[in-house]
Structure formats: structure tokens, C-alpha cells
Write a structure and sequence with these properties.
Length: 620
Amino acid sequence: MQLTGDRFTQETAAFGNDLVTLPNFPAEIRAPQGTLPGVSSFQVHFADHDILTAGDAPDVLVAMNPAALRANLGDLHHGATIIVDTHDFTARNLAKAGYQDNPLDGDTLDAYSLHTVDLTGMTVEAVKEFGLSRKDASRAKNMFALGLLSWMYGRPTDPTTTFLAKRFAKVPDIRDANVAAFKAGWNFGETTEAFAVQYEIKPAVMPPGTYRNITGNLALAYGLVAGGVQAGLPVFLGTYPITPASDILHELSKHKSFGVTTFQAEDEIAGVGAAIGASYAGHLGVTSTSGPGVALKSEAIGLAVMTELPLVVVDVQRGGPSTGLPTKTEQADLLQAMFGRNGEAPVPIVAPQSPGDCFAAAVEATRIAVTYRTPVLLLSDGYLANGSEPWRVPAVDELPVIDPDFATRTNHGEGDDAEFWPYLRDDETLARPWAIPGTPGLEHRIGGLEKGDGHGNISYDPANHDFMVRTRQAKVDRIADSIPLVEVDDPSGPDGQGAKVLVLGWGSTYGPIGAGVRRVRKAGYQVAQAHLRHLNPFPSNLGEVLKGYDKVLVPEMNLGQLSLLLRAKYLVDAVGYNHVRGLPLKATELAHAIGELVGQAEGIDIDLGVWGEPTQKEHI
């Protein structure tokens, strides 16, 4: 189903629609087939205009077995189309899915447009000329289903037939069988009277440029490569495989031509230790992981804070705690990123808002790490990592130039008494000099023990420790001088202050928040929206922005971590909207929560009615 969803996505991207996807699959390598925990799904939301989420309620569900029907039926709206492969609705499979009776019989699905199709049988018949066993032949039923859906929505077929020819080039029978199944599904849709409606979704209007469909992990890997190129630094990734971050390792390993070195360590601690060593040697050190790995790396990240070396720590967040939900999304590592080290160990935090934005966030994390000589935590999540959207490929001249400004000469004293002091600081950034080991005359020592100001020798002096702790914090605070001010989307007011309610988010909640805000505005009510990329430090005008609104709603896929930080720093009574389901927030539910808060602020009763529902011009 992941392959099927990916191919439909590629077809849709090639056609020019805007789209957002939501892959959803089990954590087990071979999950129990036919059971609810073993269901693998792929949701695609596409339209002829800009969309922000993978959608709340699908318009069409293709269910290959009873478990798939049962697991996804609750997400459908009444009137949705359900296409069911009847072949696997056996008594055994029905029991495994928890059905006592066959739901295809009787009136339990009368609220939907149900199409019962023997996908497996028709697939086997369509490919019988290639001499495959029935088991191998039936595996092509996903391509039959893809052909049917491609006909229903007028998707181009050439990208898929080309893909299949390339994917199975070494096994001609499998290649030809999949192509035949795909075409048979298309022909079935065109000739059968069961599907009387074919939908036309015109291409979306987008700014001019070169576009490609991209996932968050792929965009993040490209961003790290671009950051290294813009800084003139070789990229070194020291990592350990962990879901859902492993694709970053897989992708970066392909780019040796850009000076990228990948090292798969024996554990999380070794991975970050190697990355810190690479940074000490003058490379861009990167380590990628998820929440459990950040916990293991915390001591080493504290070492990078003390040594003040550039380091990018990518945390692709997943459901926790402990092993938790490896393949499900969450954004509950914010407080761990903020405080998850011993002592006062401030670390800048950057978070992308969409799959394509992972590229820009990675470049920004690189800029901060190199410019300010500090580890940076980049908080992506499973939804962004595996989801995809059309992404405009930026021109090289749109990317920032990042200057590592390596130390090349002594910086303290004169003549024969001249020395290199590794903890003298730049007046503007408070960054210490970065000297590549082996540079003549710049021999120096760093490590985990406290440094004396300037000279960097080990110091146990209480006053020096207090000063150095405050200096490291001040260095992170200085980053606010080089990041954009928070921008408020408030069309109701001339100065962005017309509404009484501000919805503030971070990370992957951008899509659901944007969709929810659109629906409230469409119903005729005023609401403002802002989104944070930089979570430490916050943009310098954030406090002023928050004070401009009567109420602030903070939607998060956690129990209120950003709300906690905002209350502590700005004394703002932020209202949390919190769900931790392992899935993205639902825009419709969020729209009603926004409407309720707007009603409280305005002193009126609000009923969003149909405005809280998705537009019929969108197809999921």
C-alpha cells in the first residue's frame, strides 16, 4: 500500500495538483497480516489550489481486506466511496479483524457508496498469460487498484508504467504483469457501469519555478548537503539507524561527491561522539536520531555545548516515551531539546513546518551552528519525515552564504608572546574562534571541564564559572538578532492586530492550524495566525505580539510544552489544544476549538456549521 500511495502521489505531482500525504504503517517488520495492528495505509489529499493537510475525512477508501475496512471506516464521512476487494473477506479474515458478521452484507455500510470488486480475481485473470503462480499474480492487485483510481481521477499513466519498467527491469514477467494489472484496473474503471463518475481536478496555480515532490527526510538531507556547500565544509554524519530518521542516513550516503561522509556507528552515543570529533577537525558534524536517541546523546551534546563546537542534532520525533510508537508522529521532545542536559546547557532549537520546509530548516540549523559555534537541535517529526508535498527547488543564490571563519593566526599578545586563546569571543556573536587542529601556532586544548575565560585552561574558580555559564546563555540569546521577527497573518487588522484571538504553533501543526484558521475566517470570524520556526531563542518581538491579543491558542501534539514555555517567559495565559494520538491534528476539530475561543473573546455564540468542514473541491 505504501508503494501504491507513492505512485498515486507521483502521478498527482506530475499532473500539477497541490498535495499532502500521510503514510501510516506498523512498526513491526512483518506485522500480523489481517489484523488491525497490521494495517498499512497511505492517504493522499490533492486539489486544484493550495492545501495544507493530508485531510481529516477521506472521500475514497480502498480496502484490501476486512482489517483495512475496520481500521479506517471511522475516518470516513457519510457518502464517501468505499472500494472493497471481496476476495479476502473470508470467515477467517473477518474474525481476525474483529467482525462477527460480514459488513458487506446487510445495511451497515448503507451510509456510504460501496463498490464490492474482486480485485484479486480480476488481477489474476489479467496477468495469467505471464505464467506466474496465483500467489505472485495476486500481488499485483495493488497495481490494479492504482489503475482504477488513476482512471477515476484522470491521473497520467506514463509515470507509473515507466516506473514499473525500471523497477522490475531484471524480471520481465513481474514487470509485464504489474503493467498489465495497472492497465486492467484503468480499463475496468472506464468500461464498467459501477463507476459512473470520473473526477477532474485541474492543476493548481503555483508560483513559477521548478518543482518536485519531496518527503521531509529527503528535503532535510538535501538541506544538510546545501548547508555544507554554502559553508564550504565537508559534512560528516555520525548516526545510528532509528525510525523515523534512518532515511536521512540512507540519502546522505549517496552524496560522497558533495564531500559527505556517513558513519553508521554501533550505538547512538558513538554516533554523536564521532560527529563532535568531526566538528573539532573542521567539518560540519551532524547526528540524526529520534527522541530515544536524543536521551542517549544528551551527555555528548552537553560536551558540544562546553567545547562550543558546531553540531547539528536532527531529532525526527516519534511517539514516546521509551520505544513508544516508532512509526507514529508526535512533537513531545521540545522540553527535552530545551532542558535535557545536565547543568546550564542552552541549545538553539529550529523546527520545520512542512516536508519541503525541512530543507530550509536544515540550512538554517547549519547557519546557526557554524556562525555561533554551538550545537543546534532540529526538531522534525514522523509526519513531516514520511509525508510529502510539491517543493519548489530554490536557486543557489537564494541560499545564505555561511562563513566558518576559521582562525588562522594568534589572537592574544604580540611578538614572541603571541598566543592563540580558543575562548576569546567575537563582539557581535560571542562565538569563540574555530581553529582546525594542526594549524601551526594554534595548538589548543578543549574538553568537558569548565574553561577559563579567554585562555580556555581548566578553571574551578566560582566567579569564572558563573561568568562562563552566563556567557554561553548570552551567546544563544544573541541568535535572536539574526533571525526574522515573528510574522502574524491577521488580514482583519491593518497592522496585524485586528483579531482578538491568535493561534500560535510550531513544527508540523502548521498545516492543521492553517486549515482550521481558514475555515473560521470563511465562516466570517476574525482570527490571527503565527508560526514559530525558532524555539530557542524565540524571535525578539514574540512577547510584544502575544500581548496584542486577548487570547492565545497553542495547538500541539503533546500535553502543552510550548504553552509552558510561553507562560514562563512572557506571563501569557496560553490556552493549549493538545492531542497525542500518533496522528496529525484534525483541521475540522481544531477549527471548532478556534471558533469556541473566538466566541469567548468576542462575547458571541459561534456555530461554524458547514464552514468547519472541508471544501468539496478537495479530494482525499
